[in-house]
Specification:
Structural class: alpha/beta
Distance between the termini: 26 Å
Largest sheet: 5 strands, mixed
Helix content: 40-55%
Low-confidence stretches: none
Strand content: 5-15%
Order of helices and strands: EHEHEEHEHHHHHEHEHEEH
Radius of gyration: 18 Å
Bound molecules: adenosine monophosphate, manganese (II) ion
CATH class of the largest domain: Alpha Beta
CATH topology of the largest domain: TIM Barrel
Mean pLDDT: 97
CATH architecture of the largest domain: Alpha-Beta Barrel
CATH superfamily of the largest domain: Metal-dependent hydrolases
Oligomer: single chain
Amino acid sequence: MKYCDLHIHSTASDGTFTPEKIARRAKNYRLSGISITDHDTVNAVKEGQVIAERYGLDYIPGLEISTSELEGRMHILGYFIDIENKDLHGLLARLIESREQRVKAIIEKLDALGILCTVEDIERITNGATIGRPHIAEHLVKIGAVDNIWEAFDLYLAAGKPAYVRKWAPSPKEAIEVIHGAGGLAVAAHPGVTDGMMDYIPELVEFGIDGIEAFYPFHKQEDQERARQLAEEYNLVITGGSDCHGTRRGEPLLGVFKVRYECLLKLRERWEE
Ligand code: AMP
Ligand code: MN
Ligand code: MN
Ligand code: MN
């Protein structure tokens, strides 16, 4: 049996593995194909492709776009996107800008709560990656404000918590349109862990969504089943992946959670149609 992983984060966003490490680990765990899908950036795509080819891995250019819906937790994966596409770059530039603005606002809120944190502190952790709350969480752990990153979200950073700030993000419709404009396929990410997203699928279908992520480490059996039913009903491609963030969320899931390579092949078939 051959396997793949279509949802992986690298050091270009909030993962801790470089593209090199991702490809090497994927190879060691006997995966046949991968897609690096960083939050709101395609910065690792090219490097990933070159290294994956060197390791003899099948590779799909990808990304994961944040959208405005469901408290900003509705994410849309894009596959086979042309990473040189101008509209895609325009959208990602707006997202990066909104992420940077938000970090400043979060830092102000933390300051008001008596927690010391500067933009420079966070930039030392991001090291050029698209900045996100996990980087701030890491800083809070580092200075002993919390014991671990989950506590950082629970006490400060999650929606509704005292240092939460919402970021601008495109509507799901716009995200799907931009992915299509860049020649790619749009896939609803982890609909079972984003509250309300399963019910939203028919609307995403109207906007032209192509696939649904059914296989996901934090999906319950019933989530997977519901995603399969929706795929059947709306003729969506089924995908899956580990959502590995390197070591940032405990044990790395890359190679441990894997999906049948057939998923990658079916996705490519749909793209070639
Ligand atoms: P951001 O992209 O800045 O909005 O941050 C969202 C990211 O934070 C997600 O992609 C996850 O990697 C991580 N995350 C979100 N909620 C939690 C949580 N409760 N505990 C740990 N990590 C989280
Ligand atoms: Mn993340
Ligand atoms: Mn996501
Ligand atoms: Mn992800």
